[in-house]
Amino acid sequence: MKHILTRRTIRKYSGRDIDPKLLDRLFTEAARTQTLGNLQLYSVVVTRSVEGKAALAPAHFNQPMVTQAPVVLTICADFRRTSTWAQCRKAVPGYSNILSFMNASSDALLFTQTFCNLAEEAGLGLCYLGTTLYMPLAIIEALKLPKLVFPVATLTVGWPAEEPPLSDRLPLESFVHSETYHDPTPADIDRFYAAKEALPENKEFVRINKKETLAQIFTDIRYTKKDNEQMSKGMVAALRHQGFI
Amino acid sequence: MKHILTRRTIRKYSGRDIDPKLLDRLFTEAARTQTLGNLQLYSVVVTRSVEGKAALAPAHFNQPMVTQAPVVLTICADFRRTSTWAQCRKAVPGYSNILSFMNASSDALLFTQTFCNLAEEAGLGLCYLGTTLYMPLAIIEALKLPKLVFPVATLTVGWPAEEPPLSDRLPLESFVHSETYHDPTPADIDRFYAAKEALPENKEFVRINKKETLAQIFTDIRYTKKDNEQMSKGMVAALRHQGFI
């Protein structure tokens, strides 16, 4: 897994398609990931068609990767298949609740990340779309997801046609705690974020957005309280629609 | 990542400790995983002390791995550090909501799985404890997790002292869907679960539990409606306690 050290998010792809056999091998290998009771509480919807990508694009704010990548994968928390299995076997499933949603989400996200590790090792380029959680109902409709299936991650996948610079990371001491959680002091914060705040691209980002600090870019523009609260309502509505609450 | 094909959950560990330098290298490499806005919305609490493991054990139903493993890792969704950063930088954080919890959970679980893949490649043995979501308040208390920090995964880690058989997996067609979700028919279910249901250990499991079908083992014993509903209440209470709802 040496490739992990030089991995970057890839948003531009060559015209080359992805062999379905390669994708199947990666799915098969990623499915070795541990899951709750070995139930594999996930599903992947593979979108290759132009119409399918066009239907998904608005849910992802029309980011160009969605229509330009040869393959879009939507990974879902899935208690449907397991519940149908139970119903076919004289068993009464009890998975219409938030714990079950979290269990299935965990399975889906762990599977997703092994897939990412494998795909990147195979030379593919990926972009993980955080937008999946923003408008889940639009994705549910586009992919015809039945009850107890909920989209938790989207990957656009293709052969890389760019090599962006490596992004920065916070120092280890900012996220590794020994024995109990160490709540960061203002002095800790200064130390943890000094390198990130000093990056020329981040300083430029603050300047062109007419902000005082880099943190304000996140709180005032990228991930605002208002947007988060509105999308939380959408998420709760989607969880209810899919029968998890 | 050839090791993925032969990975198994390891619950028995040799007496050998894990070098802190190895653990730090694995954390550093796992942190190359993509996160929302590169905010790295996770934390890891490393438990090595006898007292620390004893404090965590009840939250994990006293499974012996928790006290026997040299290292227990609790990976948390963490919007605390980012919010404190904002407050130190004239920015007003807005992350006390369910979308933010899901965003941070996603970051934490993706990081967790890259860590798993790296650790297993390095020869370590892991057990992923699904119990983390069952009694989060007990873990929150044991690890002194402040508001906006929530435990989402626990790994017991050590050098393997067993080599259990590989576990089965469902066929690819059961979890990979083309373009839209294909809701499984009873005939599909028969095909998907035939191999799992035919395994001698699963047949024995059904017999000794005096059940009719394997699915009943899951619905009636392992993951019951009653337990799921009760633990869902605990989870909602914990999310409220940590300020996410």
Structural account:
Two copies of one chain form a homodimer. The first copy, chain A, has 245 residues and is of the alpha+beta class. Chain A has ten helices and five strands, in the order H-E-H-H-E-H-H-E-H-E-E-H-H-H-H. In chain A, strands 1-2-4-3 form a four-stranded antiparallel beta sheet. In chain A, helix 1 packs across helix 5.
List the topology elements.
The structure is a homodimer of 245-residue chains.
Chain A: H1 20-30, E1 42-47, H2 50-56, H3 64-68, E2 71-78, H4 80-87, H5 98-121, E3 125-129, H6 136-142, E4 149-158, E5 176-178, H7 186-198, H8 200-208, H9 214-222, H10 225-241
Helix pairs in contact in A: 1-5
How many strands in all of chain A? 5
Oligomeric state of the chains present here: homodimer
Strand order of the largest sheet of chain A: 1-2-4-3
Shape descriptor of chain A: globular
- Please tell me how large the radius of gyration of chain A is: 20 Å
Percent helix of chain A, as a range, is 40-55%
Largest sheet of chain A: 4 strands, antiparallel
Report the order of strands and helices of chain A: HEHHEHHEHEEHHHH
Mean pLDDT of chain A: 98
Number of H/I helices of chain A: 10
Q: Biggest interface and which pair forms it?
A: A-B, 111 and 111 residues
